[in-house]
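Re: the 223-residue chain
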Amino acid sequence: MPGAPPATEAYPPAFTRRRTIGYRRPVNAATTTAVRMPAAERRQQLFDIALGLFARNGYHETSMNALATEAGITKPVIYQHFASKHDLFAQLLERTGDLLHTAIAERSTGVDSPRQRVEAGFVAFFHFFDEHPDAFSVLYGSSLGSVPEFKREARRVQDTFITMIARLISQVDSDDALVMAAGINGIAEGMVRYWMHEGRQHSADEMATLTTRLAWGGLEDLS
């Protein structure tokens, strides 16, 4: 049954790095000897492994049994942290979107001109998905349209991104900025989809430059 997570839990001691959201995952979890770990780190581990599973298999084809197996734990341990698979995916979606927004905000803070701010935001945007490709599959994957709550959360992520872009081009009327930001968001989504599907043949910096050049066509008078 769901409840407050314990202070520590069993966890295999061997780790290896993954290019996901900065978490760690066990090596050969099924055969390593379990040790205790803090509950907060357990949640991070479950987020990390779940991100990879959802990215590879989609929401419906990912099971809690598979998550438990990869984590080297039993399913009851998962339910100490998440009420259900639905709850896990919803929290993962929210967390991943928030990490993307934080990366963009940090990269664009302190940049002077609107064009430079927009380009800095795109640099953060493309570097985020270059470093965390599984995050792209979760935020832009087909699973989002299958559950209304997931669709709403994806829309929240998108609306937050649009608002951030509008602030980056804040030298125009706020209503106009939101309209233009929505268009720029569409350009960014199209560019990142093509880039990911084509195997990221351009660098993240090259994609940021290309996207800025394309998006800035209607905004060049602001620079």
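Residues 8-83 form a domain with the Arc Repressor Mutant, subunit A fold (CATH 1.10.10.60).
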